[in-house]
């Protein structure tokens, strides 16, 4: 019998855990697989860990991994994937927005030969505001334009991974992980399923605006060096444009124009180019900072406790 591992990162989801387990049991009741649930407590401040231990005590197929602090969703996903031993691994959120009833369909596509079955949100999602829809479209359009991967608008962390894909993902030990891009990057036979997210069962989304901005910037830099090329191109363009100023200087000297004229435009130009230089240096510094952090070889996560045997890693 094939084994299915479902990896679920959880941050302050104490009221959702029991409902999710019940929904998963209902969706998987008729499948011919041995399956397990691996919850990763990503430094929750509420009683998520207490609830996970209670579920593990009453369900033999529920396991938990308690991280030492909040490392972030992608690192929590990696912790669960590193410890999972299924022939296929499914990752999903704990807030019940990822519909468990899609699991049989994902498994069917896996049996048909697909190595990765991912999901992406429909544009008609009623639980997302106009600004969020607009920002999501622009983000994916931008990252597709400047990187070597293509991400569907609204692609999510609700996906199925074959064990050979998981093996390759386990070899990756990057400082900043962007799993949505990484899964696309590894290749293999992939197919996408559109879905409409459900409303959160309880609680609120933990991503703030600035966290989303940080995620966007980090994901772009994780899969592209084009910002460096853009910075180089800007420098070259404005350097060439500055040469066009030479004829103006010569004419001014020749005809004796007032040397004080144009001081406002000069100050504006200096301020503009100063800001441009700081932007370019910031881009270069960001890449250097990532290299610096990568050379430290710190672990992506630290496990404080788990009811899984450590030998599984």
User: CATH superfamily assignment of the largest domain?
Assistant: Spore Coat Polysaccharide Biosynthesis Protein SpsA, Chain A
Number of domains: 2
Radius of gyration: 25 Å
Low-pLDDT sequence parts:
none
**Termini separation:** 22 Å
Structural class assignment: alpha/beta
pLDDT averaged over residues: 78
SSE ordering:
EHEHEHEHEHEHHEHHHHE
How would you sum up the major sheet? 8 strands, mixed
CATH fold name of the largest domain: Spore Coat Polysaccharide Biosynthesis Protein SpsA, Chain A
Which band does the percent of strand residues land in? 15-25%
CATH class of the largest domain: Alpha Beta
The backbone outline, from C-alpha atoms, is elongated
Strand order of the largest sheet: 7-5-6-4-1-2-3-8
Helix content: 40-55%
Strand elements, count: 8
CATH-defined architecture of the largest domain: Alpha-Beta Complex
Q: Give the helix tally.
A: 11
Domain Glycosyltransferase 2-like: 5-168
Enzyme class: transferase
Organism: Mucilaginibacter antarcticus
Keywords: Glycosyltransferase, Membrane, Transferase, Transmembrane, Transmembrane helix
